[in-house]
Amino acid sequence: MTKTEELLKRLQRAQAGGGTEKAKAQKEKGKLLARERLDLLLDEGSFRELDALVETKGREFGLEGKGVPGDGVVTGTGTIHGRTVCVFSQDFTVMGGSLGLAHAEKICKVLDLAVRIRAPMIGLCDSGGARIQEGVESLGGYAEIFYRNVQASGFIPQISAILGPCAGGAVYSPAITDFVFMVENTSFMFITGPEVIKAATGEQTDFESLGGAHVHATKSGVAHFTAGSEQDCFRQIQELLGYLPQNGEEKPLRIASSDNPSRTSPELEKICEMDSKKPYRVHDVIWEIADAHQFLEVHKGFAENIVVGFIRLNGESVGVVANNPKHLSGALDISASEKAARFVRFCDAFNIPLLTLVDVPGYWPGVTQEHGGIIRHGAKLLYAYSQATVPKVTVILRKAYGGAYDVMSSKHIRGDFNFAWPGAEIAVMGPQGAVEILYSKEIKTSKDPEKFKQDKVQEYTRKFANPYYAAQRGFLDEVIGAAQTRPRLIQAFECLRTKRVEPLKKRHGNIPL
Fold this sequence. Notes:
Layout: H1 3-15, H2 20-28, H3 34-41, E1 48-50, E2 73-80, E3 83-90, H4 101-117, E4 121-125, H5 136-152, E5 158-162, E6 165-167, H6 172-176, E7 179-183, E8 188-190, H7 194-201, H8 207-211, H9 213-220, E9 225-227, H10 230-241, H11 266-272, H12 283-289, E10 296-298, E11 306-313, E12 316-323, H13 334-349, E13 354-360, H14 367-372, H15 374-387, E14 392-401, H16 402-407, E15 417-420, E16 425-427, H17 431-438, H18 440-445, H19 449-463, H20 468-472, E17 478-479, H21 485-495
Parallel strand pairs: 3-4, 4-5, 5-7, 6-8, 7-9, 12-13, 13-14, 14-15, 14-16, 15-17
Antiparallel strand pairs: 1-2, 2-3, 10-11, 11-12
Helix pairs in contact: 4-5, 13-15, 17-19
């Protein structure tokens, strides 16, 4: 056997993974193989594998001489739309994709490379968890990955795709990364599985209802995106990367747009003229504003009273945060505050300008919210906006009441341009509630309480429930016609392209976690 033949034989053995039978079992579960996933995710022919010949370092419990090929993970570099990315893809056919020391070292090595070359890191997770045969070395391997995730956070985009089981300590690496994708019916995440839960608490559950894609996309908020298939998952990752820069030192790529930057929208005029008590989907506003009416929504099924995601304005990537009156009247609650705060901080870390669309009646009331810590959690969004130094443009569409007005990127927490539609209502609270507090005695003693109340409501509305009082005091930069929203936003962001802010020099602030 020549030296070249020996090399080819070793590479073929590594590429074979766990063998034909285990590959067949993987396929029967509706799952792709580790290398097939990389072929679909990356540009054709762009993958360059690293550490293909690494084998397990374990020697106990039958691992001696076993020679686990690739140690259950495929790592390397490739391109997506011509841009370099670093990747790892766990191979469930090799010891259930379990993480041993060599497996962890391969992931750490490619993560270190991603930081050095300032490229996004994408992890395709399909693992049975820590390799029991390697004991504490396996646990140490996880911790080394976690540490690197944290150090890379805000410096390079990190994306996790859960394509099988992800349990125990394995869930913390995806949780630290910027975006988590899950596939319906085949992805599962949980700290403790159904059997352990039953033994510990007596509760009965199954994989899907405990930690399936739908649960994490709608209840826990762990998953930012869900997909109907692995192919759809990879398509969504490719789309997301189109809005992101390579790293925190760069800005997102600006692309040519065929959509007229001066395009106006009669549809927005109709929404502006609606009764302020009537709900509507804020998506209709976002689509009208965006280039080619395209919007990539993030965290779509979670905390639907606030909407976040990415659009382009005249080719420039912009992050959108918008109250959604269709759910909870657009009020802020614990989940919405955390969802939006996380998104604002991501955009600020990666030089993505922020557009805030405001239609908020205040914070959602209730004992559950107060006991759940709405004060602390709500402060996270205030903190995130106040700390953000990227260009920030705000449009008050309808209601902006109480402390929620302040929090939603108001001028007072350094919004750069703050606009309002003509029908905007900006006040401490709604006219009805304000009158009942201000004139409680007069209402009781009035000959016609209802007429007195309505007269005062009209007076309060005329004075405060409009954008002009705020505009007179400089809290709004401009009251704009709703139809002109898109061109005015494009002009504002263009003006802010050269914005520079030098934050105070300190180790870091103390966000109310």
